[in-house]
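Review form for a predicted model. The reviewer records the input and the model, then writes brief findings.
Reviewer: anonymous (R2)
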Amino acid sequence: MRYSQLLPTSASLSAVMLTLFLAGCTPQNGQQVEETDASSPLTENEVDQEMLRDDFTFAELEALRLQVHRTIGTPFATDPSQCRVLPFGAKPCGGPSRYVIYSIQETDPDVIEPLVDQYNTWSEIYNEREGLMSDCAVVPEVSATVINGICVPTEYADR
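Model under review:
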């Protein structure tokens, strides 16, 4: 069978699949669809409500972790005073599981701090909900400095 003979069938099949896909995305039985602007930031109350949710999935927790790291990006800085350290995650025994470093030159504290707070809250809830355990070792707090224009843990400056 030649390729040209398959083309009309492929095009028809694609058209049917597209129609079914779009039909699945439309409201049924007069349902109203609430329009939201995905680019608009959450209000403080919405952030508080989202933080208190305990029905999130592991995938949502992981997506939030990635969002924090994407928001931080590379913490470029010209001076150590631009570097900030935040506790990140929660160990089942208590305390942070690690620390993240960001630069106020690159990242707005009013954006990153609520994201990290939400991640920490969800991490704590997840540990408790899943009955997780850990070694209970205390993770020492890090300080930050600038090496080659990037905020890094101070311990790297000693190397």
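Findings: DSSP finds four helices and four strands in the chain.
Further findings: The chain has one domain: 47-158.
Recommendation: see findings above.
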